[in-house]
Specification:
alpha/beta; 267 residues; four-stranded antiparallel sheet; six-stranded mixed sheet; binds adenosine-5'-diphosphate; 12 strands
């Protein structure tokens, strides 16, 4: 076994990990999240979040700083768990998984892209892209071949021996995307992927996400605090003070989202 899901055809379920081939790939029901406070007690950050995302969607989770977007993404990506509520990824309640199972699911199903790229600064571009495949147990030749393919996809095939520190911000983010894609993920979770880039480089990254979504059918969940960036997606989930204030198609104007915040205030 090379770490890939083995689908049992008739039940559409992986015999090893229990994930199902469902249309509704991310299903959150009444998710709440609280963090303990040092002074005692706790701070609730997410309140009864319901999110359903289907395979092939490009969704932006938008909201002001501190509204709970990253907390929500960490739960979606199985990097953190909810305090209460149900979260099913590919039809499997992941709260029942142990740490090894969770690591495997993350590695196989999800590609992560972060604002600050999270590249290993002392390793070459090629090494950085190969890394997730090492955890899959791929042999070196296969890892190199796949990493080179991915670097070609993001237009950086001539930079494989460079260190991340020698590259521009936009190029670093493309390396991070190549790394996220190396494992052939079904879902890309991107937390403020253009947050450290100027608008030109940011636009390039967003167009690339669009291409990955349209041409490769990858489900994309992108977090941003900016409406202009969220508008690249096909749907916006607006989170405000830990509540969902709006969930629907990209509105013509941001004022629709601002108005939806009143609903949260009224709670
Ligand atoms: N690990 C943590 N421990 C304690 N509080 C946290 C933790 N992570 C986030 N928070 C708090 O949760 C709130 C929402 O944070 P976050 O999800 O990062 O918001 P956003 O990504 O929308 O800016 C903030 O008040 C933040 O301080
Ligand atoms: Mg954040």
């Amino acid at each position: 076994m090379d770490g890939r899901a083995v689908w049992v055809a008739d039940v559409h379920q992986c015999k090893d990990c229990g994930m199902k081939k469902t249309e509704n790939v991310i299903c959150m029901k009444k998710i709440c999240k609280s963090f303990p406070l040092e002074i005692g007690g706790e701070q609730q950050v997410l309140f009864d979040i319901d999110i359903n995302i289907n395979a092939g969607e490009f969704v932006a989770i938008m909201g002001p700083s501190g509204s709970g977007k990253s907390t929500c993404m960490n739960i979606i990506g199985a990097l953190d768990s909810a305090t209460s509520g149900v979260y099913e990824l590919y039809g499997r309640d992941i709260t029942t998984m142990n740490a090894d199972e969770l690591a495997r699911v993350r590695n196989e199903f999800i590609g992560f892209v972060f604002q600050n790229f999270n590249l290993l600064p002392k390793r070459s571009v090629l090494d950085n892209v190969m890394l997730p495949l090492m955890y899959r147990g791929w042999v070196m030749d296969d890892r190199i071949r796949r990493a080179r393919e991915m670097l070609k996809l993001v237009g950086l095939e001539t930079f494989e021996t460079y260190l991340p520190t020698q590259l521009s911000g936009g190029m670093k983010q493309r390396v991070a995307i190549a790394r996220a894609l190396a494992g052939d993920p079904k879902i890309i979770l991107a937390d403020e992927p253009t947050g450290a880039l100027d608008s030109k480089m940011g636009n390039e990254i967003l167009k690339f996400f669009n291409k990955l979504n349209k041409e490769l059918g990858i489900t994309i969940v992108m977090i941003t605090h900016e409406f202009d960036i969220a508008s690249y997606a096909n749907r916006i989930i607006h989170i405000y003070d830990g509540h969902i204030a709006y969930d629907g198609p990209v509105p013509k104007s941001e004022s629709v989202l601002t108005k939806s915040e009143a609903k949260v205030h009224a709670k």
